[in-house]
Amino acid sequence: MAKSIVLITVDCLRADHAGFGGYHRPTTPFLDSLAAESFVLPAAIVAGTPTYYSFPAIFAARAPLAIGRDILGLAPGEPTLASVLKQTGYATAAFSAANPYISARFGYGQGFDVFRDFLDEEAAQSDSPRDEAAGNGHGSSGGRLRRMNQRLQRLSRTAPSLARLYDEVYFQYCQRWAIPPPKSLDSLRRFPSADRIVDQACSWLATVGKQPFFLWLHLMDPHAPYYPTQKALELMGWAQISAQRARYLNFFWQRSDLRPESLMRHRDEVIVLYDSGIRWVDAQLLRLVETLRKLGLWENCILALTADHGEEFLDHGGRCHPPGLMEELICVPLLLRVPDTPSRTATSPFSLLNLAPTLIDTAGARPLAGFQNESRWQQIRTGASWDDPAVVECVAGCTNPFHRESGNRLRPRLLAVREARYKMIFDFESSQERLYDLEADPRELRPLAIGTETTVRRRLLECARRHIERTRNERNANLSLRARLSEMRLEWAEPAYPSATAGF
Ligand SMILES: [Zn+2]
To answer: What is the reported pTM?
Structure first.
């Protein structure tokens, strides 16, 4: 009988913040114990960043820009991991923590018997003070104070040092006096926490009976704004961080008036909040696996854990996860637990383009029609390596693809070819390339001088050329058309896309 599959995707989880990825803090004690009996792939690379350029590969084994860079999400009828497994007789369910880019409206509900994306609930529940964050913190005091503030602000723009002073005083004023103290961390959180998602998954698992199943959970706990549960802070030994402090840190981290050197002031505390989100995911996955055991489903169950992209903490001056190709964004954890197989580490670069075919192969389900990319299961199982580099791509600067009219999605491509040692980034906007030797420079601080390593450059350039040519030649006109028509219908139904969803 084919094995069941549980796929866990954790938004924003950097590879180097998981214990089994070498992190020094205890973010993942349960997953570390699971890793000891699993296949671990320490060089797992996403196919695109952020969410909207990563998930087409995870679900449809398709390069993110392959059916047109103006298309978001999956095309109607595009074969997906879920639809293929459903056709093979699997029961299928998804519980996704309110990330709009992977909701049913972008095709991710295809193939699922049960699909919950929590988006309605999330909109109704949050009382996160976003207006205050935008600088409207005076609330109803209005009138005189607001006019005085506007005059001061105008005056401050006459000299850079005055502008910095004004911005700092105004930020501190808003944080300390203008906004009422938050009720709790729970009241600030933007997304359903992992315990709620796992609760729903456990209820569904109790209904599946003997047939093989595919369960997908997408968890948002490490996603900004970083508001972990109080319990997670306690598990990490940081119970002293109050809700008010967490809010201060999050608002500080979003400031656009500060340079990276100034943001460094609270970077470590912000990372503490992010790490606590990971710790909560770990605790809830332990609960999920306990339920699978209790229901007698664990022994026939594959579990894969990965992420759609990483997260920046000023590694190269940036924050969060705008489209980009540096290691902190493209390297994600990948753990593959397969019952009755020994644990092993596969160190070759593994593109998430190959994840869906690999999972289907590992489960012993029927081979796929319509998936272009290959299974790596035989190599992973036997400890063999492979040479093909991973290719990652995105549209430079496309931080809010909902704003279609601005041409955001049609800007030039950024593309990286990532081997075990060398990585080349091609910037089609500036027509520049940067080559890194990751062995000598793992943090990508010193691109190799132009004119050096010409053989490597030629090899990686040829790989980039083949990738672009292949995706162009294989472009499926029917899928492109269906995706465009589907999006037009979405626009008729709901012309104003929410701007608050930018940057997932
Ligand atoms: Zn994401």
So the answer is: 0.89
